[in-house]
Amino acid sequence: MRVVHYLNQFFGGLGGEDKAGAPLEVREGAVGPGLVLEQLLGSDAKVVMTLVCGDNYAVEKQEAMIALALEKIREARPDLFVAGPCFQAGRYGMAAGALCSTVQKTLGLPVVTGMSEENPGVDLYREPLYIIDSGTNAARMRDVLAKMANLAAKLVSKAEIGLPADEGYLTRGLIRDQFVEQTAAQRLVDMVLAKVKGEPFESEMVPTAFAPIPMPPALKDLSKAKVMLITDGGLVPKGNPDKIQGSAATRWGSYKIEGCDDLKAEDYEISHGGYDPQFVRQDPDRLVPLDAMRELEREGVIGKLHDEFISTSGLANPLSNTRRMGREMAERIKQLGVDAVILTST
Amino acid sequence: MVGSNRTVLGNGIVHVVGDANVSPEQEKEVRRKLVEKALEALKSG
Amino acid sequence: MQLKLAIHRITAIRFGAATSIDGTTDGTTLIVNAEALRRLLLEDPSLSRVEFEIVRPGESCRAGPVFDIIEPRAKEPDSSPDFPGILGPPQTAGMGTTHVLEGMAVTVLKETGAGDSRGAPGYVLEMSGGPAAGTKYASLHHLVVIPCTKPGLPGHAQQKAYRLAGLKAAVNLARAAANDTPVSTYRFESVGPAEGDRDGLPRVAYIGQIFSRQRKPELGEQILYGAGTDGMLPVVLHPDEWLDGALVPSYHNSLGGVETYFYQNHPVIGELYQRHHARELNFVGTVATIAAADNFDRDRNCRFAANLVRWSLKADAAVLTKFGGGVPHADLAETARLLEGMGIKTAVQVTDLARDRRLESALLFNFPEVNAIVCIGGNGTAWKAPRLDRVIAANPEMAERLRGPFELEAMSVIGVSNQQGVSRLRAIIY
After folding, report:
1. What is the H or E stretch that residue C89 is in?
2. Residue C399: inside a domain, yes or no?
3. How many domains does chain C have?
4. Domain ranges within chain A, ordered by starting residue
5. Which sign does the torsion angle of CA C409, C415, C418, C424 carry?
6. Which chains pack against B, by 3+ Cβ pairs within 8 A?
7. C309 and C337 fall within a common domain
8. Alpha carbon distance C263, C249 (integer Å)
9. Are strands C66-70 and C104-109 parallel, antiparallel or unpaired?
């Protein structure tokens, strides 16, 4: 097994903070912690190259550092890339995370790093990477490297990776399926009984708290505002020209309503598998309130109704998807000079 | 969890801005009221 | 209330001259007179023909799309009716003796796979390979009933015909056992709020969603004692009512993950009964409820359900299950939150909604007190379904569609991600 290892200036033996500006250096063979790593990985493992870089350089010149590192790693033809462990060193963690995630993505190599939970590199890279929980104490180096080596060996041999508590990595915030011995009903009753008795229990899922979204400023003058209609109820022109999926949609569409005062049942269909569409099918204005908006436009209550509406299907859609579509829509709406949006949601 | 700041309660999942149980004229009135409420919300800060 | 189950264990099914049970040293065979059963089902003027197929556990066979799976059960004459409200008057279920053909099921197919939000043809019964290991249904003998409806029937009438065909077939088959001696009988210990605290054991209730108003109930759709759920408020049911025919699933089973078989063999109710008998807890009763279509509806239903558990059942703890997809998460969590606020401990069972496999997408609620969550997986599991010679479907086109090879998602294999508590597929955070 050929291994490339990344270290900062301190663990790479260049020096302390005074050497933090040192550019990326390439060393043959293992250096410092790499010697222990090599030993822990077993007799067929060899650290063929060590990359050493100053922390400031790695963060300030990240792009250049990564480009050079990638080139060198490619040349070394490794089976595994390891960075750190970085403990609580923030710049080290950021560089190791960026490098690991790029190597994983562009070279398709197994990668492992180690950091303490508080390292800012964890926030950014915990999802794409296996980051061994190193704690903050560098004296535990050997322990941490042992866990990294163990996990790395599994990644290289494509063995099944256990849970965070078993393998020692920081929870990635991902979900996978597993068949278990007990039925859901048994687990449910076990859990409630433990709760009643005040005994510890482990919830199988934990809710996510989302940061509040700041309130956009109020509209000053409605009568001058350009208003747009958006829906996530899956209303699309007959034939669903953008092929918006009825569930977990990855696409959205924008549809002309210029010169139209009332949406006609025969022109539209619903692509949404999560509600009974019969009523909106009969009258699409029940979802996209065009007739009412036109009235308000004619009466001068609003300045103008934008001449197209946006539609997608909001069902069982992961946030990563909806976030992207929301951004795309917002960009489009800004370009169009729209002042306000009414979004109808099923 | 809904993170939207300006939320107007619609008239059910199956017809958010409609009502199949009333006459078309009444229904349009229902719709207009809901839309007006949304516009009102847009003016609030 | 006292329900007695008379268990007749079936180890094979074959067609023969008279519907009866044939016990030999090798096991017990259910002999089915297909002609007589067909005549019975064709009394329904909605049906033009009915086909039957026999499927064995482990057999290389696939059937679908599945409308429902039912355990053959029949009541003794002096007991409450079979499927009250649907096949008989809506008298309280759970009284007297019920004959059970254990180890088999009546599996009803539908003619089209429409109405499934995942684009799949609908639920598939897979009897072999990886998927079979994840579902109890693969271990049963099945009499597959394929009802073909007359052309031009509206959707709701078709579905009703499927429902009736399945229930009638299940009852008819089980009647064959009425005069046989059961291999075992099972009597439930008395349960209910009037039964006292039994030495201070925690009083535990079950709240189960039986429908989600994401869809309007179909015209004439029968769910609880033959009634649709239009205008339904939460209602206290004795556990035996769930087990003995008071409930059938919605027509839209792809939304629910609910089958009649696991109402009859309800895993949560079964578990609570077992712990009740083991004197680990005091099972005080159940509440059936629905997930709402809007916030007013939700507020009302959740409050009523919580209040019934608090004041009628006087529970110390409750377990909750949901029906359907994402929206019912809100009703489930709100009910649990209200209960916790009354000092009643809760655990809830949800399905994982994270198709991107991210933790942040898994739940549609975030209440600190709703912190005991069982999570059924399914979004991350699929199998390569091989091409099979034996594919059972209502028509050749559907059979071809199901023949394979194709990728079979866990959510499309009936029983794997079931929401009645039988699932062993768990979503795990890593």
Report:
1. none
2. no
3. 2
4. 2-167, 222-344
5. negative
6. A, C
7. yes
8. 8
9. antiparallel
**Is the Cβ–Cβ distance between C279 and C200 less than 8 Å?**
no
Which of C155, C185, C215 terminates a domain? The answer is C185
Pick the CATH number of A2-167 from 3.40.50.2300, 3.60.40.10, 3.40.50.300, 3.40.47.10: 3.40.50.2300
| Same domain, residue pair C199 and C172 | no
Supply the ipTM of this predicted assembly: 0.96
Range of the domain at C260: 189-382
Residues 6+ apart with CB under 8 A from A331: none
In a domain, C245, yes or no: yes
CA A224 to chain centre: 39
Sort out which chain B residues have CB atoms less than 8 A from A319's CB and list them: none
pLDDT above 60 (res C117): no
Mean pLDDT of A35-40: 97
Nearest by CB to residue C359, choosing from A173, A189, A276, is A173
Whether residues B4 and A213 touch (CB distance < 8 A) is answered with yes
Contact between A218 and B38 using a beta-carbon 8 Å cutoff? no
To which residue do tokens 């180096």 refer? A141
Q: What are phi and psi of C36, to 5 degrees?
A: -65, -40
- Give C199's pLDDT tier (boundaries 50, 70, 90): confident
> Which of residues 365 through 384 in chain C touch B, CB cutoff 8 A?
365-366
The residues near C84 (Cβ < 8 Å, ≥ 6 apart) are: C90, C91, C92, C93, C225, C226, C245, C246
pLDDT tens digits, one per residue of A259-274: 999 999 999 999 998 8
pTM exceeds 0.90 for this model: no
Within a domain: residue C14? yes
Whether residue C179 sits in one domain with residue C75? yes
Does residue C215 form part of some domain? yes
Tell me if B12 and C327 make a contact (CB, 8 A cut-off).
no
Considering chain A, what is the average pLDDT of its residues?
95
